[in-house]
Specification:
Elements lengths: L1 E2 L5 E2 L5 E13 L2 E12 L5 E8 L3 E7 L4 E3 L2 E8 L4 E11 L1
Antiparallel strand pairs: 1-2, 3-4, 4-9, 5-8, 6-9, 7-8
């Protein structure tokens, strides 16, 4: 499953329902700042371990994050556990320099 600040959700996992919302965006010169929220709902009776993949472009930096993440080239990877019959929310603010 992949979710990104552009609102794109990719991948199919039965019983897992992701949604992505761009909360705020601003531009100035060669810099863009975006804040977004990803919600993942698990309708299964077991907790699910997932990796959420964010595609960020340019020279990027995470300014704020609600979750620990790993940087891998142009990707931000969040490893999360969605509880059984539960929902988690990931919020991030990123700055991209072009």
């Amino acid at each position: 499953m992949k979710a990104g600040p552009s609102g794109g959700i990719y991948g199919i996992v039965f019983g897992i329902i992701p949604s992505s919302v761009l909360v705020e965006a601003s531009e100035g010169g060669r810099c863009e700042r975006v804040s977004y929220k990803i919600e993942i709902n698990n309708s299964k009776s077991e907790a699910q371990d997932l990796t959420v993949v964010e595609h960020l472009y340019g020279d990027w930096e995470i300014l704020e994050s609600s979750d620990k993440y790993r940087r891998l080239m142009l990707l931000q990877l969040n490893s999360v556990t969605v509880p059984a019959k539960g929902t988690i929310t990931i919020t991030d603010t990123a700055e991209n320099r072009f």
